[in-house]
Write a structure and sequence with these properties.
Structural class: mainly alpha
CATH superfamily of the largest domain: HUPs
Low-confidence stretches: none
Bound molecules: adenosine monophosphate, tryptophan
Mean pLDDT: 95
Number of domains: 2
CATH topology of the largest domain: Rossmann fold
Largest sheet: 3 strands, parallel
Order of helices and strands: HEHEHHEHHHHEHEHHHHH
Helix content: 40-55%
């Protein structure tokens, strides 16, 4: 691919401020954000508040959740000196480029999106138009910076493919090969898909009505231990090999979480606990989760006590982000033929 030649490698990702961050966000996304920050590419991480309002958000809760996600970013090790951290609505280029992409994307492409089908559910006619065009805004988030690499959990793969399709169609429609890079998803790592503690067929989600289904980054030690104790499992002991986890989604999920937290493989975990029941495995997992997450939740609480400092970090990040995005937006407007004559 000649993309690497023409576009500086750059990482972009986003997290919605639509509730408490979960262990799924941490293992599937934020831990990778931190690893990438320590690599060679420039890293930009965004709290995507405009995406959150595609479904109803209480205004005060939205502001609070935006600060919470930022505090979680910082508590997990993102450094505003090494990464650009900001919230989406403070950089107008996202919305401006999204409009152009709304005119590039085809209705048929949007209709195929499984996340829209899931989120709209039976109430399709009554869901917001924003929920439907959500992936065009996501493409704009990435391409406003000509970002080349996008770390996300497995659930975002289809949206990333759509972003590539939008970039390719724009480049083709406006006869500008390589104008936008085709962004690469970075999916993988130890836990690309953490499942609900109550139902091994559903992903762990901050919007699940049952709080017992997820571990929140702000849960205290007792809450974490209690949720793991109550996690759904089957009556069998742990198998000798990972193949033995097939058809046992809840057991496989807990083993996967243990492996990701311990920085080891599922194979190593089953080898260690082979033949043991959940009466042994769950307390061990609870201890591991508590030792990992309690320093993070303490740091989130400390940071949340000073909202002005969080707002300062976001404002500073937004200025740096806008400085990168504005020239790219101006070039895009010019390509499309939108006249700009204001000084
Ligand atoms: P969201 O909470 O939907 O804004 O997601 C933020 C990031 O976390 C995205 O990269 C998601 O793919 C990732 N993510 C969310 N839930 C999970 C999960 N249960 N397992 C792994 N990754 C997840
Ligand atoms: N749609 C993503 C999610 O729900 C969040 C997101 C918005 C995003 N814009 C993005 C992720 C750009 C990566 C890049 O998880």
């Amino acid at each position: 691919m000649n993309q690497a030649r023409t576009h500086t490698p750059r990482v972009f990702s986003g997290v919605q401020p639509s509730g408490q961050l979960t262990l799924g966000n941490y293992l599937g996304a934020i831990r990778r954000f931190v690893e990438l920050q320590d690599g060679a590419m420039e890293t930009i991480y965004c709290v995507v508040d405009l995406h959150a309002i595609t479904v109803w958000q209480d205004p005060a809760a939205l502001t609070d959740a935006t600060r919470q996600v930022t505090a979680a970013f910082l508590a997990c090790g993102l450094d505003p000196k090494r990464s650009i951290l900001f919230n989406q609505s403070q950089v107008p280029a996202h919305s401006e480029l999204a409009w152009i992409f709304n005119c590039v994307v085809r209705l048929g492409w949007l209709t195929r999106m499984t996340q829209f089908k899931e989120k709209a559910g039976k109430n399709r006619e009554n869901s917001s138009a924003g929920l439907y065009i959500y992936p065009a805004l996501m493409a704009a988030d990435i391409l406003a910076y000509r970002a080349t690499h996008v770390p996300v959990g497995e659930d975002q793969k289809q949206h990333l493919e759509l972003a590539r399709d939008i970039a390719a169609k724009f480049n083709n429609d406006f006869d500008a090969p390589d104008f936008f890079p085709l962004p690469e998803p970075l999916i993988g790592g130890p836990a690309p898909r953490v499942m609900s503690l109550r139902d091994g067929s559903k992903k762990m989600s901050k919007s699940d009505p049952s709080d017992l289904s997820r571990i929140n980054l702000t849960d205290d030690a007792d809450t974490i231990a209690n949720k793991i104790r109550k996690a759904r499992t089957d009556p069998e002991p742990l198998p000798e090999t990972v193949e033995g986890l097939e058809g046992r989604p809840e057991a496989a999920n807990l083993v996967g979480i243990y492996a990701a937290l311990a920085g080891t493989s599922a194979e190593a975990v089953v080898a260690e606990f082979a033949g043991q029941g959940f009466g042994v495995f769950k307390p061990a997992l609870a201890e591991l989760a508590v030792s990992h997450l309690t320093p993070i939740s303490a740091e989130i609480r400390r940071l949340m006590a000073d909202p002005a400092e969080i707002d300062r970090v976001l404002g500073d990040g937004a200025e740096r982000a806008a400085a990168l995005a504005e020239p790219i937006l101006a070039e895009t407007y010019a390509r499309v033929g939108l006249l700009r004559s204001r000084g």
